[in-house]
Write the structure tokens for this entry.
Amino acid sequence: MLGSSKKILIDTGFIVALFNADDEHHIDANKTAERIANLKWYTTSFVVQEIFWMLSKRKSFSDAYGFLEKVPLLFILPNLPQDWPKRISSILLRYRSAKIDLADVSLVVLADQLKTGQIVSVDRKDFSILRWNGGKSHFHNLMDT
């Protein structure tokens, strides 16, 4: 099994690549999806919203809507802690020069909550910069294994 946790975080670009055969990461995303199919896929509502928006722009509203119907089958969407606005704001300020987006930062808060830094993302730049575990730990991107 990959990593030490059965919980993995799922970022936007990975799902967009799975749903879009024209995406440059489509083949790698499919291979990764096969490898991680037995794990529990966690994400946030911020990521779901970003996926919907990107699919509607890059493919079609119909494709985006089809993704939305599959959300309950694909992901576990836990509630973020009550103090999520404060935590997200703090992380955004810490990384402001890197121009990290809200969806990515929401995954940092979720990583802290779930106590896992295993992520699947085509966004290697942001997740090589971001840290979880109170800013102490690097993410482990399963797209790279």
